[in-house]
Write a structure and sequence with these properties.
Elements lengths: L12 H20 L12 H12 L9 H4 L2 H29 L5 H12 L8 H27 L5 H16 L18 H16 L1 H11 L10 H25 L9 H14 L15 H13 L12 H15 L6 E2 L2 E2 L4 H28 L10 H13 L14 H24 L19
Antiparallel strand pairs: 1-2
Helix pairs in contact: 1-2, 1-4, 1-16, 2-4, 2-16, 4-6, 4-7, 6-7, 6-8, 7-8, 8-11, 10-11, 10-12, 12-15, 13-14, 14-15, 14-16, 15-16
Length: about 450
């Protein structure tokens, strides 16, 4: 009798993504727990799991000093998982969809291609899209590494400078926020070369590959600015609005606090750097724990928004935020259609936006409750004064895969670390999983009678 043919398990894309990320994290935790990965005693497994989850989910929250605690082997492992996590949202999804849709009709394959590449296909096939993403990533990271190496060479021997340049370039483009300096980048808060290189890498990594590929085509003369897709217009406009807004608000709130005594140029760099890093990068040039509560609350809002869909950034995404604002504006003006840049948004996109925002808010709120119980117990408000803001900030930072902390991370309890791990994982995989699940439209056999309910 002929041997049965091997068949690939029919898993949904969302299931494959969750299993893939989980497998990579478990493998990395095992490797990072080896004695070879640390300079002293092996790291506890829960801390190894926390670190690898933070790297794979490109968050940047750390329970130990990355540069001092881990050996060269451990640091290279972290860098590898940062790169895998940064590319995971796009490359991994492209690979999964490419394998998963081999038997689908041509029309559905085109839908998947347009979903990954934007509203207009910028490459003729998924295979070419995948190669373009890899080449673009390596090119941007290489240029960033070279610029940082040239700057660090003034402070360190060339081999060390090259290693520092490569590590921070990959971490910045992947919006990870991992650094090898004990104070992150506080020592370079007034350095224009380091600041603008890191900021450029963070912004490029947070725009999304579909936007970058369109901009590349425009630079090469293959596409006109007038034919820029609606997705790219929304991402670029919202990004260009949020970054200066964040810098102005941070400067205004911190002018008499943490910025006091700095030169005008350093104040400008610090304000702009923190605003850009809030796009879920996590690098910092000031001590976040010394910021005022109003600044921290404003930063929570920006961390929740995050970067663009299909990018290395986290959060609910700037395009989701833009659609939510456009929806609110349309309803306030009594219009049913949601319009942006003289284009009407497809009706199926609006429920996805509302669902994603509601689920994200509910999930983070519930995790804040659990994290408060884990870290504060049943202390009264008077006894825990100031601690609640730290918990809220930590939760939103983890969910937005930002990596900012007021100093709570190294002091988390084991249950607290487990909750932050879950927040980082869901923050990285959750939006993509929701997007994959929404691609399957199941029709109900019947529709119930319609009736109104009072709203407001």
């Amino acid at each position: 009798m002929p041997s049965p043919r091997f068949r690939r398990p029919r898993l949904k894309p969302a299931q494959l993504i969750i299993l893939s990320f989980s497998g990579v994290i478990l493998l990395g935790s095992t490797l990072l727990s080896l004695p070879l990965a640390t300079t002293g005693q092996p790291i506890p497994w829960i801390d190894a799991l926390f670190t690898v989850t933070s790297a794979t989910c490109v968050t940047g929250l750390t329970v130990v000093d990355t540069g001092a605690y881990f050996s060269g082997f451990g640091q290279v492992l972290i860098l590898i998982f940062i790169q895998l996590g940064g590319l995971g949202i796009t490359t991994l999804s492209a690979m999964i969809f490419y394998l998963f849709t081999e038997s689908l009709p041509l029309r559905d394959r085109e839908v998947v291609l347009r979903t990954l590449a934007g509203t207009r296909a910028v490459t003729p096939s998924l295979g070419q899209l995948l190669r373009a993403v890899l080449v673009l990533t390596l090119a941007i990271e290489s240029v960033g590494a070279l610029l940082l190496t040239l700057r660090f060479a003034f402070d360190y021997p060339l081999p060390r400078a090259a290693y520092l340049g490569l590590f921070h370039a990959v971490s910045a483009f992947c919006n990870a926020g991992f650094g090898l300096f004990s104070d992150n980048l506080v020592g370079y808060q007034g350095d224009w070369a380091v600041n603008f290189t890191i900021m450029a890498l963070v912004v490029l990594g947070g725009l999304g590959f579909s936007v970058l590929l369109e901009l590349l085509r425009i630079a090469q003369g293959q596409q006109a600015w007038a034919r820029l897709s609606l997705h790219s217009k929304v991402v670029l406009f919202t990004t260009a609005f949020l970054i200066p807004l964040g810098a102005l608000v941070i400067y205004g709130m911190e002018h008499g606090n943490i910025l006091r005594g700095m030169s005008a140029s350093t104040q400008f760099l610090v304000s702009l750097f923190q605003s850009i890093s809030l796009r879920t990068a996590g690098f910092n040039t000031v001590d976040i724990g010394h910021l005022t509560d109003p600044t921290l609350f404003f930063m929570i809002m920006l961390m929740f928004i995050g970067g663009a869909s299909g990018s290395c950034a986290g959060g609910i995404k700037v395009n989701t935020f833009a659609l939510l604002v456009a929806l609110t504006w349309s309803r306030l003006h009594g219009r049913n259609d949601v319009e942006i840049f003289e284009r009407r948004i497809s009706p199926w996109a609006i429920p996805r936006v509302i669902t994603l925002v509601i689920l994200s808010v509910c999930f983070v709120t519930f995790m804040v409750l659990l994290l408060s119980l884990a870290e504060q117990g049943m202390l009264s408000h008077q006894q825990s004064r100031g601690a609640f803001m730290e918990v809220v900030f930590e939760a939103f930072s983890a969910f937005g895969t930002v990596g900012y902390s007021t100093g709570l991370t190294p002091h988390l309890s084991t249950p607290g670390k487990a909750l932050i791990i879950l927040l980082m994982f869901v923050g990285r995989v959750g939006p993509l999983t929701l997007g994959a699940l929404f691609t399957e439209r199941k029709k109900r056999p019947l529709r119930y009678p319609e009736e109104n309910v009072l709203v407001g």
